[in-house]
Amino acid sequence: MTRERATRAILLALVTGGALAACASPATSLAEPLPASPGLPVPPKDAVRELPPPAERWAIVAGVGAYKPGLSSLHGDEDARAFARALEEHAGFSNDHIVLLAGGDSPSCRPAWPGTPAGKRQSEHSAADCTPTLTNLIGKLYEVPLDAGLLVFFFSGHGEVVDGESVLFPQEIQYPAGLNREAQASYLKRSGLTASAFAAPLKDRHVTQLMVFLDACRNAPGEEKDSHEGTAAAPRNDTFDLAKAGLQASLKFYSTEGLAYEDPQRRSYFTSELVRALDGRRDSYGPRNVLTLEALINQVKNNVGNRSLADRKLSRQEPKSYLEGYLPEVVLAGREVPPGAHPELLSGSSVLMTPDGKRVYVADNRRGAVIVFYTTGGKPQEVIDLRPGQPGKMVLAVRRGRLYVSEPVSRTVVIIDTATDQVIGRMPTGPSPESLALTPDETKLYVSNQQLAPNGTISVLDPGGTGPIGEPIGGVNCPEGLAMAPDGKRLYVETQCGSGDDPLFVVDTSTDIVEESFRGFAVGGLGLGMVPNGEKLYVGTEKPDRTQVLITATGDVKLVGRDRAAYAKYFAVTPDGKYVLGVGGSSNLVFIDAITDEVLEPRDLGVPGAGIAIGMVPPTRKGEPPHAACYIWLPDASQLFFTGLDGLLPPRQETPD
User: Fold this and answer.
1) pLDDT in tens, 607-643
2) In this structure, what are the phi and psi dihedrals at residue 579, rounded to the nearest 5 degrees?
3) pLDDT above 70 covers what percent of the chain?
4) In principle, which of 156, 245, 373, 534 could form an S-S bond with 76, CB 3.0–4.6 Å?
5) Per CATH, which fold does 343-644 belong to?
6) Residue 306: how many CB atoms within 10 A of its CB?
7) Domain ranges of the chain
C-alpha cells in the first residue's frame, strides 16, 4: 500500500470506557450536568460524502463474555451479537460479510470470510475459531478482502493504557497484578491488541474507509465486582492512535472521563445506544428517514451520559467525539424519503387512509365500488360506483390529489379526484391489472398485469393521465402485489405461477429493468408490508403458510414466527414504525415486532381481513391530541373494523438493544 493510498484511508473510531485510561485508578465521582455538544469541525473540501455500496462493506465484530480470574466478567459477547445484528439489519452489511467472534456455536458464530485463504465456510469451524483471542483477531485482520471499501471493527471487553498506548484485552489474557509495572506493561503489550498491531495487517489490504468501535474498559479490569467509583480522566492525547500507524483518522469518539458502565440489566450503555441509534424506529433518523454521522454522535453522547447518570446517580459516562475526513451528513443507515412523500400510500392496498386521517378509502370488489368512510364528524359514507367493474388495489398521490384504482374488468386504472371523490378518467393497462405502486415524486405509476410467463408485464403509466411511459416491463411471471421503496429507487414485485418457487422481483425504477430476484416465496397474495425506512419488506407466503421478511439492503430472507399464526397477506405499520400488523392469512390480526421480528399474541377478528390501514386520526374533542387508529376491511361481514391502537397492541418491554 503506497503512502499516498494510506493517507486516503478513513478511520471512524468510536471508543468508550475512559478511552481505555488507567481503568483501575480511583477518582472523584462526576456529577456535573452534561455539557452541550460542541459543533462539529468544518470538514475539508475532499471529505468523504458517502459510504461505499453494501457489496463493499465488511466487518469484524468481537466481544468477550468472560475473562480468566482477576478480570471482572462482562457481557461483551452479547454486545457483539447485538451490534452484528444492527449492522446486518440497518447498515447494509450482508450476513456473510460479518465475521463474529463472540464464542458459542453456529449460527451465532461466523468466523470466516467468503473465499479466505483457508477456504473455510461459515458453517465449517470449531469452537476455537469463534473465540475473540489475539490470534483470531489479528488473523481476521490479515484476511480482510483486498480493496474492501469499508471495514468496521467492533470490540467489547476490557482494556488499559500502557506506556501511552491503549491495549485491548483478548479473551485469553490474564491481568498481571503481581508483576512490577515494567513487567506488567511488557506482558500487556505482548498479549493484548495495540493500535500498531491492529494497523499492521491492514497496510496492504487497500481499505479506503475504516470504522473502529471500541466498547472497552467496562467496570475495572482488575476487579471481580462492579466498581461504583469513577476513574481518572483519560489522557488528553489519543491512546489508540491508528494515524500514527499509517492510517488517517476521521472520527474518534472517546469517553474521556470515568469508566464505561453497564446498566442495571448488565447491558453496555455505549453499545446499546449505538444499536438504538442504528434502529430507525427509535426517533434517531429524523425527518429525512436516515441516520447521519452527526445524529449518531449526538444521540450516543446524550443518551449514554443521561442514562448512566440517572442509573448511577453520582457517576456519568461521557463520550467525546473528534471528526476528521467525513462530512457530518454522511448517511450511516436508512433510506432517504423525498420531502412530502407518504411511503404508506405508495404501494397497492385495498384500504388507504388520507394523511390528515379524516378519510379511509376501501376498495370493495364485491359491490363494485370504492367506499369513502369519514373518521370524524359523523358524516355518512360515500360510494364511488365503478360497476360493472371490480376495484382492486389503490394508491394515493397526495400532491396531485388523485386516487388511482386498478380495475381488471375494464383493464384500466381508474383516476379519482380526491377533492370531489369523482371519477375523472381512466388509463388502459395490460390484461388483468392487479396492484399498483407510485414513485414518491408522483411521476411514475406501475401496474402489475397478471399473466402467465412470458406474458406477465408491469405497465408504466403517467400519473397525469396521458397513458404509458415507454414499454411495459417484461420478464416477470404472473406479477401480483407491488411495493415501492420509500426512496423510490426500487419496486418490489410479488409473483405467482412459479411452481412453488415464485420469485420476488426487484425493479430499478431509474431504468425500469428487473435487476434481481429472490426465489422461494410462493406468495399467492397481493399484499406487501414495507417499514417506513425501507429496511424490511414483509411478505405473506403460502408454502409454508408463514410471513417472511426480506432485509432489503442485503437480500437476506428469514421466516417470521414458528407456525401458521404468523401468516398474513396484507400489512400495515404503526406510525412509530415499531409494529407490523397483518391480516388475511386467517381470521387473526397478526402482530409482529418490527425491531425483533418476534410474533406477538394474535387477535381473532372472526372473519379474514382483506386490507388494513393505520394512521393518526384527528381528535373528537377540542384540545385532545390526535390518536393512532387501525382500520381493517372485513368483506365477509361487509364491515370496516376500526379501533384505537392504545390497548390493541400487546405490551412490549423496551430494551436498549
Assistant:
1) 999 999 999 999 888 888 888 999 999 999 999 999 9
2) -130, 145
3) 78
4) 156
5) Methylamine Dehydrogenase; Chain H (2.130.10)
6) 14
7) 3-29+51-334, 343-644
